[in-house]
Amino acid sequence: MSTAPRALITGAARRIGACIARRLHQQGYDLILHYRQSSTDAEQLRDELNRQRADSCICLQADLNDMQAVEQLAQAVRQQGPLSLLVNNASTFYPTPLQQAAQSDWDQLINSNLRGPFFLSSALATLLEASGGSIVNLVDVHAEKGLGGYPIYSIAKAGVKMMTLSLARELAPAVRVNGVSPGAILWPEADAEMDDAARQAILDKVPLQRTGRPEDIAEAVAFLASAGYITGQILAVDGGRSIFS
């Protein structure tokens, strides 16, 4: 039986989640890769990591919009044994202009970004307490400064920020809870309206004048997972964007 620490990463199949998975695996974690729809990507990543270290990685599917699925995911994780780290990375992102937003948009964005991670954290708290583990939540710079045209997403991520601070108090001293707040890292895949001018307008507000790398977020998550005297903190990884009004 493996004695490696185990981490659950939600939304781990692609993009930043997959990069976080590779970094934590390099640091010796066994992994549970959660995915919603990207089964092929998740399975390919699992196989890649298992080739590097046998039996170190599994996949679990769940729709975090569905409370029953959240509970089933937590139960499946508990069946794997001890858990040292929960990375709440999974997120839904799309525009909801105020006059066009529907209740279904509210439910989709709040549930996937906030409700699912909250109840997953609650369901796994006992495992994390037993291991003296930690939670790292992926927040967003727009938790502080709402993104125009994306009010529901911005509200949800502001909730994730407060969830991080609240759970840090609720779960202390056994479990540390922190957050990483990315800035411009990867451009949204589905945002067809984001042309070069729109992207440059964003970078004009970034002191480092460039996008970050998924590896920057993975490094921050790995740091917070190992920083034994840090809890209740949100680490902005945004090229300095947050110092501007």
UniProtKB/TrEMBL annotation:
InterPro entries: NAD(P)-bd_dom_sf (IPR036291), Sc_DH/Rdtase_CS (IPR020904), SDR_fam (IPR002347)
GO MF terms, alphabetically ordered: oxidoreductase activity
Keyword check for Hydrolase: no
PROSITE patterns hit by this protein: ADH_SHORT
Keywords for this protein: Oxidoreductase
A Pfam family annotated for this UniProt entry: adh_short_C2
Presence of keyword Hydrolase: no
Family membership noted in the UniProt record: Belongs to the short-chain dehydrogenases/reductases (SDR) family.
Name the UniProt record assigns to this protein: Pteridine reductase
